[in-house]
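Section 5.1 Outputs to date
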Amino acid sequence: MIEYRPFRNSDPPQLVKLWHESGLGRGAARGFSYEALDRLLLGQHYFDPAGFLVACDADQIVGFVHAGFRSDSSGAWIEHEGGAIHVIVVHPSHRRTGIGRELLSRAEAYLRQLGANSIQVGAASPCDAFYHGLYGGASVSGFLESNADAAPFLAKLGFQPAQKFIVLQRSLKQGDPISFRLSLIRRKMETFIFALPEQPTFWWFSRTGRLENVQFRLVPKTGGDAVATVTVSGMDLYVEPWGERAIGLSELVVKDVSRRQGHAQALLIEVIRRMRQEQVTLAEAHIAEENTAALATFKSVGFQPIDCGVVYRKA
């Protein structure tokens, strides 16, 4: 008999063991202890045990599901109108027994009970309250296609792809592109590194801010505001599964007046050069499929698609 119940403070050791035994694909961090789970997940101010449901066979946790809510428009707190089911994990020995279906149903009921009128399966900004640094890689972008069990399971329950994110990677061991335009930008611009973005919000601190990260800014040598910025986050929990020191690139922003002039390209190349000096060997970024300009920029500096993150909704 399977028992379903909310999270208990004594659960983390079993949860970590279940995570590592469940074969969640290349996008799942590995080799971490329950202290990392506490820092990146359970320690969130808005963590609600009622939204973290476990399935137990006798005294063993054999599955869990975690549901959460989106950020409000100001990034100051959460709002309950939109919810996401962030993860569904069932031990291989207990799959195809209805546990995943029941966990998902209970997670949906939890979200609707608290006011969600829009529910997605697979977290993505701005509905990505949890699992930064633990699942997805550089960003939380739905369920990765490399986790082959996710899509057929959700399709059987009536969920269809609603949004896709292209996962790109670049080896820092390869050379960097060279052009006259990039050389001119390097003469006119300089790069500064800051510990925080210009206007960090509570939502930023709760997610990206729990990782080791810095913001690179490309600034004119003559003075003035940055023309382009990008956040660089460490991915220490991926050293074991990937066998490389990796960084995640996110929040690439170019001022409107500086677009299509090569500034984003120049900034990414400078980040790659500096990270290479720190013995980092791999960089990853997640870009929404419809953001063709950003995809073109990353590809122009050597990034290649290696996976896809998918957010699902009911038809």
